[in-house]
Amino acid sequence: MKYRLILFDVDSTLIRQEVIDLLAQESGFGTEVAEITASAMRGEIDFSQALSRRISL
User: Fold this and answer.
1) Which of 10, 20, 33, 56 lies at a CB distance of 3.0 to 4.6 Å from 14, suitable for a disulfide?
2) Count of structural domains, the chain
3) Catalytic entry in 11, 34, 45, 53
4) Alpha-carbon dihedral sign for residues 45, 39, 9, 7
5) How many CB atoms lie within 10 A of CB 17?
6) Residue 44 pLDDT greater than 90, yes or no
7) Residues of the domain holding 51
């Protein structure tokens, strides 16, 4: 079997940032996405809610 793609979860492991926050900064939604991410990290909203909110921006 020959693999053509490898995926890594590097958020807060190999790098200190969350990749979705970095992408949001580049697209002009950095503050909004960072607030949603922080809320999820504090347990105020669950992961699926946070992801949906961030993607909708």
Assistant:
1) 10
2) 1
3) 11
4) positive
5) 13
6) yes
7) 1-57
